[in-house]
Amino acid sequence: MATPQASGDSSQPSQAKTVRVVIKGRVQGVFYRNWTIENATQLGLKGWVRNRRDGSVEALFSGSPDSVQEMEQRCRRGPPAAMVTGLQVFPSNEDPGTGFERKPTV
User: Fold this and answer.
1) What pLDDT score does 15 carry?
2) Any idea which fold 26-93 has?
3) What residues does the Acylphosphatase-like domain cover (predicted)?
4) What ranges do the domains of the chain cover?
């Protein structure tokens, strides 16, 4: 249980939001994963990104609700060469880890 003295810290882990997203369209071979890592890191998010064998990209984003929502919006646009045709967002309880990384294709 948090002590009252700790309330001065504005980054409270209990307020973190974690979502898993699946991005569809022309999202492989267009630097989507590198773009995702750059944007997620810029927003202070934790998690991962990976290609899927079905041609989609999957990612896990965890951080402040505002940053997660902003990343969802950025993913709808993607990098310049991408053509996003669909974005699915699922709530997640998965551990995002300590940073943001690229995972192997599944």
Assistant:
1) 87
2) Alpha-Beta Plaits (3.30.70)
3) 18-104
4) 26-93
